[in-house]
Amino acid sequence: MVSRMGTFALVELQKLRHDRTELVTRMVQPALWLLIFGQTFSHLHVVDTGSVSYLAFLAPGIIAQSALFISIFYGIQIVWDRDAGILAKLMVTPSPASALICGKAFAAGVRSIAQVLGVLAIAYLMGVHLTTNPLKILAAMGVVVLGSAFFACLSMTLAGLVRNRDRLMGIGQAITMPLFFASNALYPVDIMPQWLRWLSAVNPLSYEVNALRGLLIGTPSNMLVDVGVLVVSAVLGVAAASALLRRLVS
Amino acid sequence: MTDEIPGTEEFAIDCQHLTHRYGDFVAVDDLTLQVRRGETLGLLGPNGAGKTTAVKVLTTLTPVQQGEVSIFGLGTKRHTMDIRYNIGYVPQQLSIESALTGRQNVQWFARLYDVPRKNRNERVDAALAAMNLLDVADNLAGTYSGGMVRRLELAQALVNRPSLLILDEPTVGLDPIARDSVWSQVQQMQDEFGMTVLLTTHYMEEADALCDRVALLHHGRLRAVGPPDELKALVGSDTQGATLEDVFRHYAGSDLDDADGASKRGLQQIRSSRRTARRVS
């Protein structure tokens, strides 16, 4: 299983190496969030973030959002692989469905990490006070891999259910922004209305952002709960997506 | 791998009373078929005959619904992973990662088939060389022509030295030169490693030239099976000029004509409905 996950991660890195423009183009959106949204709301002082600047508060949220936007479209990629015959070939190799799903989920994490490094670089350039402790940055990458794995699995589970690229594209777009807004990525949970707090409490993105804030800006967080929720979500996601994978090629 | 073929069974594929349904539609209907070790068997039939469904079951991609299938004596229900180590599969679509080089595409499958690290590069180079792709191995696969892509897929399928190679319409969409090139590479590999080959194709002349035996499938049912010459000799008095096409017409011709007629009638009905809809709207 670990060797196959490594194989898929390697393939993802090789693809990225051959098409570096994707890294640059994917950086545009998080850069805009930090540069425009972040700076504007910093000046407005409408979001109470305590002793932390709004930009520092926002940066981990944007890292999580970037990873979400990458991984939520892995379902479309797997439908594309199905249509191109690649999925059938992969499923005829001696790799169980769960290994393929874990591999794809891990690959989503690897691709997201490249994004994390870009967002961190922009944040440092903007003078945002994020940690420079390499161990904490490594731990943050681990959190991003877990979060990405869950959202990639969610997307591949939906792919197994709807089995149609266009329909999946619509669903992906329909769920991405609600997942983002119903989390603590842009604002603290305390200022949310009660109904949104409930949504935020069941949204794994909130736990990912909490963990990232704890690691990168040192805000109080319950790392055990945050990482625990992400691990359990990822395991459930792998199980659901693996169970439905065969539907794609049957 | 060829030197690690499991068991000593006479048959590479032993398919008994296989039936596969999609809802109410019977795609494969009570198919009993055996393929001997080292043999090349062509599964022939028109679109919708059940060839691809049969291939999906034989490759373990789709579970057996009804009947029994064993590959080298191993039942597909219980020995899925063991069987997969011994299968090379090329699907209908041109299916490679265009953002990777040819070499990376083959290395990817070498890893998935657990080709040992110490032999991996050598195996990858050997597979690429066998398909005449070594010179362009480090170019992006997205720059390859259709024939080269197909040969790259064969290199992927052969990198684990499979005992059974399953090709689902491998030459569809290729020009005659690319088709010849693909077949000559397959035959070369078969001569070298003694693989069993199961292929599906629309091209009767290809099947005639390449296959030891052909199996004619129509509406999910096996209509005839045997060496091409024997089947041609069976179709009637005028055997001198008989082709596999004639054999196919002989066994399934009236149904084929019916199917074509039904299809035409279906199209006419659709056009008529659309005209009506346009008038109403």
Provide key terms for this protein.
heterodimer, A: 250 residues, mainly alpha, 79% helix, B: alpha/beta, Rossmann fold, six-stranded mixed β-sheet, four-stranded antiparallel β-sheet, disordered N terminus
How does this model look, in words?
The complex is a heterodimer of chains A (250) and B (281). Chain A has 250 residues and is mainly alpha-helical. Chain A has one domain. Chain A is 79% helix and 0% strand. Chain B is an alpha/beta fold and 281 residues long. Chain B has a single domain (2-226), classed as P-loop containing nucleotide triphosphate hydrolases (Rossmann fold). A six-stranded mixed sheet of chain B has the order 6-7-8-3-9-10, sandwiched between helices. In chain B, strands 2-1-4-5 form a four-stranded antiparallel sheet. In chain B, 44% of the residues are buried. Mean pLDDT of chain B is 83; it is low at 1-5 and 257-281. Chain A binds chain B through residues 3-4, 7, 10-11, 14-15, 18-19, 83-86, 88-96, 246, 249-250, and chain B through 56, 59-63, 81, 84-85, 87, 89-97, 99-101, 104, 108-109, 111-114, 140, 153, 156.
Sequence-ordered SSE layout with sheet pairings:
The complex is a heterodimer of chains A (250) and B (281).
Chain A: H1 2-18, H2 21-44, H3 54-71, H4 74-83, H5 86-91, H6 97-125, H7 134-162, H8 165-181, H9 194-201, H10 204-216, H11 223-249
Chain B: E1 11-22, E2 25-36, E3 40-44, H1 51-58, E4 66-71, E5 74-75, H2 80-84, E6 87-90, H3 102-112, H4 117-130, H5 146-158, E7 164-168, H6 176-193, E8 196-201, H7 204-210, E9 213-218, E10 221-226, H8 228-234, H9 244-280
Parallel strand pairs in B: 3-8, 3-9, 6-7, 7-8
Antiparallel strand pairs in B: 1-2, 1-4, 4-5, 9-10
Helix pairs in contact in B: 3-4, 3-5, 4-5, 5-6
